[in-house]
From TrEMBL:
It comes from Pseudorhizobium flavum. This is DUF1285 domain-containing protein. Residues 34-101, 102-196 form the DUF1285 domain.
Length: 208
């Protein structure tokens, strides 16, 4: 098995078996995410794998229907300084395509801690992330219809696009905040303020 590479796997199950062996090499043997940021393997080319904007993973043009496989792949994802996303093991690194963001935030819960609102998100691959200084939310407005797209930093440089239904719930929690003398529509979580847009442009949120 020592000479096997990700690219020699003939299907998603074979690929998962290799990644599973790599994922077993967790820091201290504890049940945690593999330390992909500490690995520096050689680049072995691109793999025919794509993560679509709706969070669906495709391998060789076919959707990966088994959620445990998708979860496994997600644990060895890394986005490097070149802006590209890779599957990384201790012995190899292969590029994959990401249409928008690698993860999708599909659920949000609101709680209060020390008198402050805390927003916690669940992603389509099972990550649970609290919006905070370490996991900020950024907002992008794009397209002819001025579509609002929030992104939550999950880990490293990997983000989750907040799904449309959750985005509507998130926006309902917004408030107007003075930021450097400008009235901004913003979201609060864990003591942090995440600006969405100038309050004067708030009306664009009503457009789909």
């Amino acid at each position: 098995m020592a000479g096997e590479t990700i690219q020699t796997a003939t299907d998603a199950a074979g690929l998962a078996a290799l990644i599973s062996r790599a994922a077993d090499q967790k820091a201290g043997g504890k049940p945690s995410l593999p330390p992909v940021d500490k690995w520096n393997p050689p680049f072995c080319g691109d793999l025919d794998m794509e993560i679509r904007a709706d969070g669906t993973w495709f391998y060789m043009g076919t959707p990966i229907g088994r959620q445990p496989l998708v979860r496994l792949f997600s644990t060895v994802l890394r986005k490097d300084e070149d802006g590209k996303t890779y599957l990384v093991t201790p012995v190899e690194k292969v590029g994959i395509r990401v249409e928008d963001a690698p993860f999708l935030a599909v659920e949000m819960s609101r709680s209060t801690r020390d008198g402050q609102q805390v927003l916690t998100f669940r992603t389509n691959v099972g990550d649970v992330v609290e919006a905070s200084a370490e996991h900020p939310i950024r907002f992008v407005i794009e397209g002819e219809n001025s579509e609002l797209k929030p992104y939550l930093l999950v880990r490293g440089r990997l983000e989750a696009l907040v799904s449309r239904p959750v985005m509507y719930d998130l926006v309902e929690l917004g408030e107007t905040v003075d930021i450097d003398g400008v009235q901004m529509f913003a979201i609060r979580s864990a003591g942090e303020v995440f600006p969405v847009m100038p309050a004067s442009e708030l009306e664009t949120l009503s457009h789909d």
